[in-house]
Amino acid sequence: MKPTAPGLYVHVPFCTVRCSYCDFHVAGYRAAVAERYVDALLEELAALEGEGFRPRTIFIGGGTPSVLPPDAWGRLLRFLGRAFGGDDLEEWTVEANPGTIDREKAEIAREAGVDRISTGAQTFSAEGLQVLGREHGPEVVAGAHALLREAGFERLSLDLIIGWPGQTAAAVDEDLRRVREIDPGHVSLYHLSYEEGTALDRQRRAGRVEPLPDPEVITLARRALSGLREAGYARYEVSNLCRSGEESLHNLNYWLRGGYRGVGSGAANFAGGARWRNLADVGAYIRAGGRPERVDVEEIGAVGALEERLFLSLRLERGLDIAEFEERAGASLSAICGDAIDELVGDGLLVRGTDSLRATERGFEVLDAVILKLWDGCDWEEARIDGDTGPDDASPAGASPRLDR
Question: Which of the two ends of the chain, N or C, has the fewest CB atoms closer than 10 A to its terminal CB?
Fold first, then answer.
């Protein structure tokens, strides 16, 4: 499997309300600011087009892209369609809040060339939505998906969160029932995390919410995974399941370490063996007129590239292609981290076949710990680094010195 590089990510940071668990770069929504922000996006995108950049996937995320007023929404999508549409573009996804996508915006998106919409359902429990700080009610998601299908969208995805305070097996079963009714092609299933600085983390520290114990979260996640599989979804990445052929090509490019460019305040880039991020400041981004300040610039060395290939591959159900890895490393996987792998295999967290190394079901449940164990157990002095170790991006623009979920 090869990455669909290069990808293009467009960040729209505006939200009317910040969700209680959110630690992304977001800003309060004001229509006038959003209009000026889109002006700046168009300038940055025009500069990227002028470099000869041609993406194979586009993803517009946030924030809440669908909160944009119709004029700004239309200007952004139509420019993207004119500049980057065509036969080379394999997938174009837009994130939408179920409560802020309407028929007009759906039709504008479809006419511009968007072919995939991802909605943040999170749960169909009124209690859960309140805990998570979501604005929409349980019934809104089905209506949004029906509207999108009427507008001609066949590729739909929705997000679910497992482990919110107070969640029960019955609540998981209700989420599964609603998913079966809506019947999207793709489902993202995330474990709730209490990120520092979020409202939910402050509530936890103050004793106003009680997190579910980890074993209970794992039990609920197993129940959700089992129900989704019974409904015809197959897991292809630790947090993502789909029906046949409905994988997110844009996100697969990230996990396969393909190159990508990001535009907008706080957007990340990976090109030419380097990573960077646009300064996460909406006002500064608007004032920069399409040339945002780059921060967190990092050149990825040969060892770093191998580490990323190993650890990102373990997020995928297919795992690591051992022969490809060893060709790039110029050394055997066993020589680099064989003892750590043997221990993780013995613990039932990894399985090593003739051609691949991949996580087991239990390994996926504690993947962070698995990766940390491997990190500690790798001896990169064994690697001789033969051949290219940069991003898997054959596009000339992918080798540009400009840098970047």
Answer: C
